[in-house]
């Protein structure tokens, strides 16, 4: 066999593979809960399950490539023209298309760090250069430093609001000030995967901000609040040239008919789904309050997870949690992200955190 392998692009060297949250172990031991992927712990609504059953019997056919039904539902829901919408295989798929559409070798993509771990991967896969701007000591986006980092090579800036994995959110005045500093030919992507969990009225809805700013694109997903993570559907709201570029860079038939039908049914069942989000937000308040009562420093979170900055103790803490029955998401040397899940799972996590706190 020849020693020569096909030539791959040099940019791929050293790019880490995306690391998903660890699944909960299947064993004879106590129930293990997965708090490692910011998923929605509630099972699909019966009405949503029913809506996909027609598509289940027809998946020998390709889906509606234009996502016609979903697009018109989204246009109504958000009060935006159809030409301002684009769907994709999860919002991470749409984020990748945005980088592809704007940035290549020699171009720069700015984002906060630490933030959503797909950003460096999709940037480097496009051949562009990541520019990582550290979060403030309070684990919030440093928007002034991000604006200072803009050069004539900058093509795209991600603002993850609320930020994964810290849960922190930037507020209206500082975000508007930042947007005013960004040149009109640089695309700002407001990644609002966790928007429905926001309760701080000062955290702006990106859809309001995009309307009179042609260089702002809002990313949303059905994976979190709407509970469709396994079906892979997300979307962008942006002005014509950006939305059109997304339609060009889309993988044909990327959003399955099951996903489209479930997303439409979820929008129609929004009140019930947002009621569930409300329960998770109450649990979040309990989790954060209890942790702080135990002596932990927890940044204010507007998402469905909490962040504990554990530094060198991160991996140990994750191992102790796993032994207790909850799988969390460690970022070695930095901290642990813990999804707010089922009450029982949150209880196990809180008890484990209390025990660990006493030992350190
Ligand atoms: C900030 C952020 N953006 C996007 C995504 C991607 O979500 P999806 O591709 O499931 O829509 C995630 C998922 O964890 C996320 O945390």
Automatic annotation (TrEMBL):
Keywords, in A-Z order: Aminotransferase, Pyridoxal phosphate, Transferase
Domain of life: Bacteria
GO molecular function, one term: histidinol-phosphate transaminase activity
Broad EC category: transferase
Catalytic activity entry: an aromatic L-alpha-amino acid + 2-oxoglutarate = an aromatic oxo-acid + L-glutamate
Pfam short name (any one): Aminotran_1_2
Aminotransferase class I/classII large domain sequence ranges: 34-346
Modified residue annotations for N6-(pyridoxal phosphate)lysine: 224
Cofactor(s), names only, from the UniProt record: pyridoxal 5'-phosphate
Record EC number: 2.6.1.57
Gene3D superfamilies cross-referenced by the UniProt entry: Aspartate Aminotransferase, domain 1, Type I PLP-dependent aspartate aminotransferase-like (Major domain)
SUPFAM superfamilies named in the record: PLP-dependent transferases
Record family assignment: Belongs to the class-II pyridoxal-phosphate-dependent aminotransferase family.
NCBIfam families per the UniProt record, alphabetical: hisC, PRK03321.1
UniProt subunit comment: Homodimer.
Record function comment: Aminotransferase that catalyzes the conversion of aromatic amino acids and 2-oxoglutarate into corresponding aromatic oxo acids and L-glutamate.
HAMAP family: HisC_aminotrans_2 (MF_01023), Phe_aminotrans_2 (MF_01513)
Name used for this protein in its record: Aromatic amino acid aminotransferase
Source organism (scientific name): Streptomyces ortus
Taxonomic placement: Bacteria, Bacillati, Actinomycetota, Actinomycetes, Kitasatosporales
């Amino acid at each position: 066999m020849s020693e020569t392998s096909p030539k791959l692009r040099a940019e791929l060297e050293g790019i880490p593979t995306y690391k998903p949250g660890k699944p909960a172990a299947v064993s004879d031991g106590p129930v293990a809960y997965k708090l490692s992927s910011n998923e929605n712990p509630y099972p699909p609504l019966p009405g949503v399950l029913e809506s996909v059953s027609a598509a289940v019997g027809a998946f020998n056919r390709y889906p509606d490539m234009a996502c016609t039904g979903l697009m018109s539902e989204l246009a109504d829901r958000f009060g935006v023209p159809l030409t301002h919408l684009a769907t994709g295989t999860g919002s991470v798929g749409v984020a990748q298309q945005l980088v592809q559409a704007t940035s290549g070798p020699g171009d720069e993509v700015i984002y906060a760090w630490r933030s959503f771990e797909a950003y460096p991967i999709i940037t480097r896969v496009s051949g562009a250069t990541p520019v990582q701007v550290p979060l403030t000591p309070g684990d919030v986006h440093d928007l002034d430093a991000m604006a200072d980092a803009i050069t004539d090579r900058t093509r795209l800036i991600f603002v993850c609001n609320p930020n994964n994995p810290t849960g922190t959110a930037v507020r209206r005045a500082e975000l508007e000030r930042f947007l005013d500093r960004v040149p009109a030919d640089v695309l700002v992507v407001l990644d609002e995967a966790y928007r429905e969990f926001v309760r701080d009225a000062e955290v702006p809805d990106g859809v309001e901000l995009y309307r009179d700013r042609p260089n702002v694109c809002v990313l949303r997903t059905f994976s979190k609040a709407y509970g469709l993570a396994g079906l892979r559907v997300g979307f962008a709201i942006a002005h014509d040239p950006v939305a059109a570029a997304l339609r060009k860079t889309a993988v044909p038939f990327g959003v399955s008919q099951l996903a489209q039908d479930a997303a439409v049914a979820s929008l129609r069942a929004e009140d019930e789904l947002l009621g569930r989000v409300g329960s998770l937000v109450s649990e979040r308040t309990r989790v954060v309050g209890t942790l702080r009562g135990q002596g932990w420093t927890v940044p204010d979170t507007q998402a469905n997870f909490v962040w504990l900055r554990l530094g060198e103790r991160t991996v140990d803490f994750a191992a102790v949690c796993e032994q207790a029955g909850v799988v969390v998401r460690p970022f070695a040397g930095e901290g642990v992200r813990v999804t707010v899940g089922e009450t029982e799972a949150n209880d196990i996590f809180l008890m484990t955190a209390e025990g660990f706190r006493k030992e350190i």
